[in-house]
Amino acid sequence: MIEKSKLFNNIYQSLITPILKKDTGIDAEYLTNISLSLLTFSSKYRHWPLVENILKNLNYEFCVVDKRLHQNLCGIDFCNPIGLAAGFDKNGNAANIWRDFGFGFAEIGTVTKYAQDGNPKPRLFRLAEEEAALNRMGFNNNGAENLVENFLKQGIDFKKNRSNNCLGINFGKSKITSLSKATEDYLTSLKLLIPYCDYAAINISSPNTEGLRKLQEPTLLKELLREIKKLKNCPPLFIKIAPDLNFKDIQDICQLIIDEKIDGIIATNTSLDRLGLEKRKIKQTGLMLSQENGGLSGKPLQHKANQIIKYIHEIDKNITLIGVGGIDSPESAWERICSGASLVQIYTGWIYKGPKLVPDILNGLIKQLNTYQLSNIGEAVGSNLKWIK
């Protein structure tokens, strides 16, 4: 009999991992949607006896509890520093169950004011050998009003029943909205969804919505942030930036964050840089990566994303940082934290390594805390401590 503590991971390794070892085969987006359908059902009907029992076993297998992993950042309690990055649960369909996979928090979205289909398919590609992905999804989602409905259907309330269910929401600009009206677009979504999120991530860095990255320009960003901060009950704000900014641009954004008293930065989004993989062919299209549109994520982004975290932390240690990009192991999570990230997010690495990645990372962090005799994970943030085997 399979041990309960390994059941779900063994199922994943048997059914899903073989698919992920090849670029071709089952379409990456189709596979994601199948997975989300199962998760959606489980989240909506989590109190049905059979579903409740499955989720209880999931929780037992993947959750790691240790008070040293807890942090209070920006007034938010995070039971551990590992989060699900935005982009997987765009419509919040599984918002009620991410804690059962061991996550300390989950970021829903990207959500836009208007429902939109996103870019033409195919738009999500596996790069199996590199444990990477190329996506040009284009903020496909059902819109802000639908996200509210999904939260209500799952019984999610900001003020009740939120124990260990920390949710951020990632906000983007609708494709049909001009850059000159971007602020109003963001504000409409935020007004609807503030009651359901612990923090708001302002996405100004996706490479897949034309013109969006122009909002990283300090003048436009200042206007946007000032209007958002005027909102009633405005939650803590995090700005999600691109990995393709030069250090001068990053420095300007950091100064703006400091001046406007914004809570933090999420670094980084996917990259337009092909990171040495320019000649790598996408088998489904026959084109090289240098010829394809879209953002690159996963392991190739690891070093670049870590350097940006380190650079921002050196500018101002009071900026709360969420590190994302290429984190796929306990070692890479520890490195990002010791470079300055208080929290880290995973997505592509989680897909390739499977759900066991979350407890593996958390147990790895605990081992390092024991080795260095640290009383809390916060003591490791920006410490530059090396991973000790």
Descriptive notes:
With 389 residues, this protein is an alpha/beta fold. The protein has one domain (4-380): TIM Barrel (Alpha-Beta Barrel), CATH 3.20.20.70. It is 35% helix and 16% strand. The chain contains 12 helices and 15 strands. The protein has helices at 7-15, 17-20, 28-44, 49-62, 144-153, 182-193, 218-229, 247-259, 302-315, 330-339, 348-353, 357-372, and strands at residues 71-73, 76-78, 82-84, 105-111, 124-127, 132-135, 166-171, 199-203, 237-241, 264-267, 281-282, 287-288, 295-298, 320-324, 343-346. The strands form 4 sheets. An 8-stranded parallel beta barrel has the order 3-4-7-8-9-10-14-15, surrounded by 4 helices. A 3-stranded antiparallel sheet has the order 5-6-13, with no helix packed on it. Helix 10 (330-339) links the parallel strand 14 (320-324) and strand 15. Helix 6 runs parallel beside helix 7 (218-229). The two termini are 32 Å apart. The mean pLDDT is 94.
Shape: globular
- The secondary structure category is alpha/beta
Count of the domains: 1
Question: What's the architecture in CATH terms?
Answer: Alpha-Beta Barrel
* Strand content bin: 15-25%
CATH C-level class: Alpha Beta
What is the helical fraction, as a range of percent? 25-40%
Q: Could you give me the name of the CATH homologous superfamily?
A: Aldolase class I
Distance between the termini: 32 Å
Low-confidence stretches: none
* Annotated CATH topology: TIM Barrel
SS field, number of helical segments? 12
Count of beta strands: 15
Sheet with most strands: 8 strands, parallel, barrel
Whole-number mean pLDDT: 94
